[in-house]
Write a structure and sequence with these properties.
By secondary structure, the protein is of the alpha/beta class. It contains four helices and eight strands, in the order H-E-E-H-E-E-H-E-E-H-E-E. The chain has helices at residues 2-8, 37-46, 71-74, 100-119, and strands at residues 12-19, 26-33, 48-49, 63-67, 81-86, 91-96, 126-132, 138-144.
């Protein structure tokens, strides 16, 4: 039904990107209705969008995200459903919502978990922040953990006293 619905759309976005980033990412595609361009933009920002003139000749997707947002209401009672189909050489992600979190962020994380398991490497679910101390030393902290564990909050400014020292609350 998803493929039939996508096939019935007047215009589609077919966007190549690298799941996991430029350095170690995996060739991937987004197939989306054109009226969900903001979703494609969010995915391009979160992952590594590949411009048309930079698509390598040997580009073979390792993952495909199929975006069919109306199914959220016609099939899933308004729930934000993401379905993973883990094939031997292709990870299909069916995104039945328009919120990039479950699909463009957590969905791609699921893709990387699956590929990592098959290739025997670990995918971290974390956030990092680089701090510059008053003595000009750099400190990099990585917070690895579950969703909702405060990783994103690490990029916020620390509470400081007027003299620049870090405010510690007791």
């Amino acid at each position: 039904q998803t493929f039939d619905w996508l096939n019935s759309q007047e215009e589609l976005i077919v966007m190549p990107f690298l799941s996991g980033g430029e350095e170690f990412g995996y060739p991937s595609l987004l197939i989306s209705p054109a009226n969900a361009g903001f979703f494609a933009t969010a995915l391009a920002d979160l992952q590594s969008f590949i411009p048309k003139n930079e698509i390598p000749a040997n580009f073979v997707p390792r993952a495909i995200i199929y975006l069919a947002p109306h199914f959220r209401h016609t099939h899933f009672a308004g729930k934000q459903v993401v379905v993973h189909n883990r094939l031997d050489n292709l990870h299909e992600l069916f995104s039945f919502n328009l919120y990039p979190g479950p699909s463009a962020k957590k969905g791609v994380y699921g893709i990387l978990l699956n590929i990592g398991e098959s290739e025997r490497w670990v995918t971290l679910h974390g956030a990092t922040v680089k701090l510059l101390t008053p003595s000009n030393s750099e400190l990099v902290i990585m917070h690895e953990g579950a969703s909702g564990g405060g990783k994103s909050e690490m990029i916020g400014e620390m509470h400081r006293r007027p003299d620049g020292r870090i405010q510690v609350y007791e």
